[in-house]
Each structure stands twice: as structure tokens, then as C-alpha cells.
Amino acid sequence: MTEFTGRGDPARSLALLWRTGERASRKGKPDLSVDRIVRAAIEVADAEGITALSMRKVADQLGVGTMSLYTYVPGKAELVDVMVDTVCGEMPMPADGPPDGPEEVPGGWRERLERIARDNLELLRRHPWMLQVSTSRPPLGPNLVAKYDYELRAVDGIGLDEVEMDSVITLINGYVAGAARGAVEAAQAETHTGMTDEQWWFAHAPFLARVFDPGRYPVASRVGQAAGEAHNAAYAPGHAFEFGLQRVLDGIAAFIESRAVASPPSGDAGQ
Questions:
Q1: Mean pLDDT value of segment 50-59
Q2: Do 43 and 128 contact (CB within 8 A), yes or no?
Q3: Phi-psi category of 102—alpha, beta or left, where left has phi over 0 and alpha has psi -120 to 50?
Q4: Which fold has domain 3-88?
Q5: Sign of the torsion formed by the C-alpha atoms of 98, 101, 103 and 105
Q6: Is there a contact between 8 and 78 (Cβ–Cβ < 8 Å)?
Q7: Which value, to the nearest 10 degrees, does the dihedral of the CA atoms of residues 45, 151, 91, 2 take?
Q8: How confident is the model at residue 1, as a pLDDT?
Q9: What is the pLDDT of residues 195-240, one digit of tens each?
Q10: What is the pLDDT of residues 85-127, one digit of tens each?
Q11: Cα(155)–Cα(268) distance, rounded to whole angstroms?
Q12: Cys bridge to 6: 91, 111, 137, 138, which one at CB 3.0-4.6 A?
């Protein structure tokens, strides 16, 4: 089941995201706040997944009555928006005042995008429920905006126009989401099946040996054996991420070079 951001009341969601109308704690609950509620909700989602999230579970996590949450958060839809924005705030970013330009993101564009990809992967592995949340209508909160600005600065001044800059960041984040989904599923496979990769293979190998004809599937036989021996598994998420990321960056490099031929860029075009 996919959860969608942007489903809540726009005015309430934005007020909550930007903390423009946070109510004071009620008497008897001096430590209850939007931040504490959101952190408890993230803990529930981290442990049980976004489908298990409910206002009641968050209240139980905090040890308060469910209705007390509504003093601070209008409902689950707005809560999910703030959860996503809060997690975006975990992205390592420059923290000293407003950015002046791409030079604040160290390295050439390729190194910068590679760092962004790895940081996003770590973020999704830490909060796998984010992979079940569609942000096609993103929560326009301060952390998400700051993250987007930071990522864009990685490709600012290298000869791309604004739409191309946005497209490159969308490409990187889309690739990372796909890779993270595979990594999370591989990590969860043992828990859900009760078998390690090695145990799974030994359970299937004897039967496969009886029915599989290498002569009929020669390429699959040759490549599958080589890959299995190299990774000691049917799927190696770490290798898949690294290999794919470099190919994506190669493609971006070719695109930047084509733009440079058409119109020589000003600023940092280094890799």
C-alpha cells in the first residue's frame, strides 16, 4: 500500500510544516509538541512500516490519549507530510547560512552527485517506509526545500539550464530509490523467509540441477554461475548500486559534454 503526501488540508499542512501556528502544550502535558509527536510517528514507521501508522499507535508510543494529539496535528495526512519533511532534514547539508553558489558543495559535479546519491541511499535504508510514500505532490516544508536546494547546487554553473538541473536531480533520486528498494528487500528477505541466501540456494540447488538444462539456456547458465560465484548470492545490492550509479553518472557526463559542444558553459564544469 502506498501512502501519498499532499492529501491533507493545504493551509493546515503548511502551517504545521513551517510551525507557524503550533499550539502551546496543554496543562498536564508540558512536554508534548509537534516535534515529539512527529519523532514518535517516525519511530513507529521505522519499526512497523507506514501501513501500520495510526494516530492511536503514535499516542501509545508517547503514552498519551489519542485525542491529545489533535491539539497539535490535524490528522494522519498532515502528520505524514511532516514526517517526510523531518526525515529530509537528516540529509547532510551545509548549515552555515544561505548558500552563495555551487562552491559551497565541495568537489566537481560528479563527486557532488555521488555524495548526494550515497547520502540519499543511507537515508532510505534508515527509514525504509519512505519508499512506500509517494511524493509526486511533495510536502513543501523547510527541510525538503533545503534538501532540494542543496542537491541542485551540485549541478549549478556547469552549463545546464534550470529544467535540465531539475531533471538530473530527479534522475539521481529516482535511481537511488530503486536501488534502495532492492537493498531493503534483500535485507528483509532473511527475516521474512527465515533463510539466509546460502540456505535458500542449497534448498533449491538439488531440484534445479535435475530440471535445468544448460544447453537450452547457455547464456543464462554461464552468466548466472559467474555472477553467483562473484557475489555469493543471487542478488548483491551493494554491487548493483555502485555499478548502476557509475553508469548513471557516465550518462550525465555525456549529456553535459553534449551541452558544452552546443553552448560552452561558464563556471564549474569539472568532474
A1: 97
A2: no
A3: alpha
A4: Arc Repressor Mutant, subunit A (1.10.10)
A5: positive
A6: yes
A7: 0
A8: 79
A9: 988 888 888 889 888 998 999 999 999 999 999 889 888 889 999 9
A10: 999 999 998 654 444 543 455 679 999 999 999 999 999 999 9
A11: 9
A12: 137
Going 238 to 184 to 125 to 120, the CA torsion angle's sign is positive
The pLDDT score that the predictor gives to residue 28 is 44
Domain limits, the chain: 3-88, 102-262
How many other C-beta atoms can be found within 10 angstroms of the C-beta atom of residue 258? 10
CB atoms within 10 A of CB 113: 24
Longest dimension (CA), the chain: 76
In the chain, pLDDT over 90 holds for what percent of residues? 73
Q: What is the pLDDT of residue 12?
A: 92
Residue 271 to residue 112: CA distance in whole angstroms: 9
Domain 102-262 in the same topology as domain 3-88: no
Amino acid present at 49: G
Partnered with residue 134 across adjacent β-strands are 4
Phi-psi region of 230 (alpha: psi -120 to 50; beta: other; left: phi over 0): alpha
